[in-house]
Amino acid sequence: MLTILLDGVAYGMLLFVLAAGLSVTLGLMNFINLAHGAFAMVGGYVTALMMNRAGAPFLATLPAAFLIPAILGVALERTLYRRLYGASPLDQVLFTIGLVLMAMPIADYLLGDEPQQVHLPAWLSGRIEAHGVGIGVYRLFIIAVCGVIAATLQTFLVKTRFGAQLRAAVDDARVAEGLGINVDRIFAIAFAVGSGLAGLGGALAADVVGGIDPSFPVKFLVTFLIVVTVGGSNGIIGALFGALLLGVLDVAGKYYVPSIGAFIIYGVMVITLIVRPQGLFARGDAR
Amino acid sequence: MSVPKAPATMGRLTAHLHRRARWRWPEIVFWLAVLAAILAAPSRAAIINEVLIAGLFALSLDLILGLTGIVSLGHAAFLGLGAYAAAILASKGFADPTLGLVFGAAVAALVGLATAPLLLRGADLTRLMVTLGVSLMLGELANRNGWLTGGTDGLNFSIGRVLGLFPIGFTGQRNAALYSFAVLFIMFAVARRLAQSPFGLALAAIRENRLRAGALGIATSRRIVAIYAVSAAYAGAAGALLAQTTQIVSLDLFDFHRSADVMLMLIIGGAGYLYGGLIGAAAFIVLRDVISSATPEYWEFWIGLALVVLVLAGRERIREAPRRLIALFAPRAARRGVA
């Protein structure tokens, strides 16, 4: 029982890191980035390739899994995404679907369609038992890492000058610009961090989902969107709670009532959208 | 629209609307060309059939996206519903294609009617998510109820003759294409009439500005629910045709990529004037055929690239291009508005 709860929490934490970047672009910058999963895929590939081909230790690959998608993200943001900030949702959807459709064959072409496995080091792969509750070490590791990330992000957003500038830029880009805030730069950095987090999430998730393959961006796109939708898209805390709720529900659902499977999370999303279109944990103001 | 100042204004308006409703010669040529293509190239009947069905599916999306401005990322839900409804009916022994077509469309329309109220709230993003969620739920439902749908194996079934006369399916590829053509043409004519009726004008008003349309006295919510159900019926009919002419249905009908593809087709052809879906479907499938015979694995890349370029260059400008070309050569025709 507690094991399932902890597994659910670990899964939820993972979802949070994967989707946090999306909740920034979607909720804060009002940009529908369906290509978010592609950055996660890049992160996963970075870790898998560094480990399998260069023999790097797992932990050492994680910074790279953050940095490379972040650099890729900022490059794309500067060249392409920023042209579409004011565009209609339909244009943004089409554009980012186009990016996904391009990313998948590129991954396939370069690396083949076999899933790239991430082999966890021995110290992360066991299970520990405490008071009759068993949990995988790796799950605990995920909970710890993602918890630290969530706390850092929240502090960053609420306590630092940059966080205040970001929130100001989001609330009203024009006024923020008038106050001397470099909105362009803020958005670029936010986008880079979001993409980097997705990459990190992809790297951490590789083992849980059974390897990274070229269909990753589409397979998990829907899950990301559900997390952001349920959590409400204007804040880190909302996304965190949304992700945890979905993670626990999904794991518990698959364990107790396997016959309805993925139905639970879709159902939660649709019900959420009916009852509270702006998300469960959002502030009251619907856009 | 406004209070008639003089009868002349009203008369001009009616005359204009009547003129808009007339079938113009390029349209007639278009349909004759399609028919000729089926008759002239029987060896290509299978792919033409695929184009016709995809065209009907794209037309159904145009009804909500192009005419009414409601975005959907889950239109495959209705394609799958129509296909499965027709397939299940046929596998239970009711093999008449027309019956299956009507049944498929009706089932899709009912589900469309039931889910349409979900679209009335929230922003575009909410609608994208709700439609996506509904299609995923239906796909999961079909997956879980194998006793009815065959689960991951899909359903194989045999189908009767159209109107009891013409065999369709593998032995009658050309008949299948003609059957799809007839259905597409009839449903297109109805959609065309619908778009030019007062109902269609109300939809255009909703697309342009829903708040203002409401202030003009248009019952916007009811109109949206109605057109969504109609659109679902169209998509259901496309699904039924697909099931009947291939005699197989499988779970991938509900897939996300179906919804994305149909949106691409519509965008390639241009939304809002009904022919866009048909042209886009033809362009998309021919393009896919050509590219995938050259690079079978990576054709998606080129579709993606085309999309990115399309959006960055501005969809509006590309759609305006033929009009501007016409304006260059025939200024008067352009001013009247060539569809």
| Proportion of residues in β-strands of chain B | under 5%
Structural class of chain B: mainly alpha
- What is the structural class of chain A? mainly alpha
Shape type of chain A:
globular
pLDDT below 50 for ≥5 consecutive residues: which ranges of chain A?
A: none
Strand order of the largest sheet of chain A: 1-2
- Integer-rounded radius of gyration of chain B: 20 Å
What's the helix-strand series of chain B? HHHHHHHEHHHHEHHHHH
Strand content of chain A: under 5%
Euclidean distance between termini CA atoms of chain A: 39 Å
The global form of chain B is globular
Largest sheet features of chain B? 2 strands, antiparallel
State the largest interface.
A-B, 46 and 43 residues
Structure overview:
The complex is a heterodimer of chains A (287) and B (339). Chain A is mainly alpha-helical and 287 residues long. Chain A has helices at residues 2-28, 36-54, 58-79, 89-111, 122-125, 137-159, 161-171, 173-178, 183-208, 216-231, 236-256, 263-275; strands spanning 127-130, 133-136. Chain A has one domain: ABC transporter involved in vitamin B12 uptake, BtuC, CATH 1.10.3470. Chain A has 12 helices and 2 strands; from the N terminus they run H-H-H-H-H-E-E-H-H-H-H-H-H-H. Chain A has a two-stranded antiparallel ribbon. Chain B is mainly α. Chain B has a domain at 40-255. Chain B is built from 16 helices and 2 strands. A two-stranded antiparallel sheet of chain B has the order 1-2. In chain B, helix 8 packs across helix 9 and helix 13 crosses helix 14 (299-313). The longest helix of chain B is centred in the C-terminal third of the chain and has 27 residues, at 220-246. At the A-B interface, helix 4, helix 10 and helix 12 of A face helix 6, helix 12 and helix 14 of B.
